[in-house]
Specification:
about 400 residues; 18 strands; Rossmann fold; six-stranded mixed beta sheet; alpha/beta; 10 helices; Jelly Rolls; disordered N terminus
Length: about 400
């Protein structure tokens, strides 16, 4: 009966299954600029080769690794040909360490820098699946072959709804390179790091490869929020991904029974330049439009992600008869509307589509005694206790003071 009233069953994340192994592809720039000898007195390519060897030696047994290069084979000046120069030299899978290091050792800086094309090909190399997949891009220069623009490619990959993260490592102290690599990383929820020494590069690549086994082991469920509460998708507990345009409101519905507590959080990735003074708001709203609770800002630990979260629980049912309680018949669920809103404004020239990445986490658990206030009640009991404690403290302090004064005078 309840399901008939609520309509289709809520969308939910898939049931847990044994996770697939972490999949990572290292993408190395082997263009002509990698000959520069400005890292610890060595060429950039030799530093990268040493870092790759150490990473391969320390690779976790369960991690599947691939290596792709760009600008490694074409020595001519025909840009049209040179901008197609990207190859996978180690396929993604269990690694033969000897073969992988031998393949990297033969690389010599050669041609152009088709970063955008290499990112597309790397995504194809990693394929699809339930696990988070990571691309680690190591380069010393910006793309010299656009289109495709690598930042647009990163947004394109993120918009596909798959859990693909691109981390970027810059080997040259160049502001244009930094901005491009930061844009690529931000679009996919990855990180940007400038590596100015052999130790920094090796340590950061190892850290990123290890992180592949620590992030999400399942892809969030793709869902499309509605433009109003009626007709919005019904969600069960799980992790969901959506896209939201600038200053938009996206609506979702979650069934919550009396005695249950709704917990929800939302994160939005700033994958393109936006004006300052922005924010994300998460609200729970009743079917009649009443606002039930407004979420609080939550620190994400990253400057390129803005988050908010909320908790709400309905009251215990008072009109259920004894037979229902004894039989433990569940009370009808109330559909609570979740609204995700943002106040982002694009900077001049910023693309408006696709929308910015949204990740929504939903859970419904047994309600705490009173999640909206302290355990002592709704404030009156706490206030009374504080008042009594203040009076007693004042009385004791007064008596001690009089005793001390009387003792001092006797002396």
């Amino acid at each position: 009966m309840v399901s008939a009233l609520l309509g289709p069953a809520p969308a939910a994340a898939d049931e847990p299954t044994p996770p697939e192994p972490p999949r990572v592809e290292l993408v190395l720039d082997v263009s002509g600029s990698m000959r520069a000898r400005d890292i610890d007195g060595r060429s950039r390519i030799s530093v990268a080769q040493q870092a790759f060897n150490e990473v391969v030696d320390a690779l976790p047994a369960e991690t599947q690794l691939g290596i792709r290069v760009l600008g490694a084979t074409y020595q001519g000046k025909d840009k049209k040909v040179g901008c197609q120069d990207t190859q996978q030299i180690v396929p993604v899978g269990p690694v033969d360490r000897t073969e992988a290091k031998a393949a990297v050792a033969t690389l010599r800086p050669t041609g152009f820098t088709p970063v955008g094309l290499a990112l597309r090909k790397a995504a194809e190399d990693l394929g699809t699946g339930a696990t988070t997949r990571r691309i680690v891009l190591i380069t010393d220069g910006e793309d010299t072959c656009a289109p495709p623009d690598p930042c647009d490619v990163a947004r394109e990959l993120a918009a596909q709804g798959t859990r693909l993260v691109v981390d970027t490592l810059g080997l040259a102290p160049d502001e244009k390179v930094r901005r491009q690599l930061l844009c690529i990383a931000s679009a996919t929820g990855g990180t940007y790091t400038a590596a100015q020494s052999t130790e920094e590069l090796t340590g950061r690549i190892k850290q990123l490869v290890e992180r592949a086994g620590e992030t999400y082991t399942r892809t969030p469920t793709v869902v499309g929020g509605g433009n109003a509460c009626p007709g919005a998708p019904v969600l069960g507990p799980g992790v969901y991904t959506d896209r939201e345009t600038f200053s938009e409101h996206r609506w979702y519905r979650v069934p919550v029974r009396p005695g249950q507590e709704l917990r929800a959080s939302v994160s939005m990735a700033l994958d393109r330049p936006v004006n300052r003074d922005y924010g994300v708001l998460l609200r729970a709203v009743a079917q009649d439009g009443r606002e039930l609770v407004r979420g609080a800002d939550a620190g994400s630990g990253r400057a390129d992600v803005v988050s908010a979260g909320l908790r709400w629980s309905g009251d215990e049912p008072e009109d259920r008869d004894t037979e229902e309680r004894d039989a433990d018949v569940p009370a009808p669920a109330e559909l609570v509307c979740l609204v995700v809103s943002n106040s982002f404004a694009p900077r001049a020239g910023t693309g408006l589509t696709p929308g910015m990445p949204v990740e929504l986490t939903v859970d419904v658990v047994a309600a705490a005694p009173d999640p909206r206030g302290p355990d002592l009640g709704r404030g009156w009991v706490l206030l009374a206790l504080l008042t009594v404690a203040g009076l007693l403290t004042g009385l004791v302090t007064g008596l001690l003071t009089r005793w001390w004064v009387a003792t001092w005078r006797e002396k």
